[in-house]
TrEMBL record:
Record's subcellular location: Membrane
Coiled coil: none
UniProt-listed GO biological process terms: tetrapyrrole metabolic process
Protein name: Tryptophan-rich sensory protein
């Protein structure tokens, strides 16, 4: 039990910290402000709290998966979606490329959905933790595609 708690804490610390560092180093800035955006574009202040909450949920699902099967397919999917997640901001904001962002976010969404499907019978809580994440990334994919189209 003690070891499991350590795993949970490490996953949460690493995922939230990495997410925060990537966010701090890839601030939207003037370039993003100058883009044409769809009417459903949320205010910038919403992204920090949403992503922090999602990162905690993603980390818990990752820790649960790690504790059950470190080298299994579900852990590989979790790692793949995390890598793509951490690449998106540098591609979209850092490179100032909605096209590169879209190239990253589509496979990311596929990995998230695949994780949900593979986890549904083995770990219902991890599956449920990923559903809001899938919804948010689905919305982000639509937003990314709309920004690419409008610009």
């Amino acid at each position: 039990m003690k070891n499991a708690l350590v795993v949970y804490l490490v996953f949460i610390a690493v995922v939230v910290t990495c997410g925060a560092l990537i966010g701090i180093n890839n601030v939207p800035g003037d370039w993003y402000q100058s883009l044409n955006k769809p009417p459903f574009n949320p205010p910038n202040w919403i992204f920090g709290p949403v992503w922090t909450t999602l990162y905690v949920m993603i980390a818990i699902a990752g820790a649960r998966t790690w504790l059950r099967s470190r080298m299994g397919g579900r852990m590989q999917l979790w790692g793949s979606q995390m890598l793509l997640n951490f690449l998106w901001s540098p591609m979209f904001f850092g490179m100032q490329s909605p096209a590169a962002g879209l190239i990253i976010i589509v496979p990311m969404l596929i990995c998230i959905i695949a994780f949900i499907i593979l986890t549904s019978r083995r770990d219902r809580l991890s599956m449920l933790l990923f559903i809001p994440y899938a919804a948010w990334v689905g919305f982000a994919t639509l937003l990314n595609a709309s920004i690419l189209y409008l610009n």
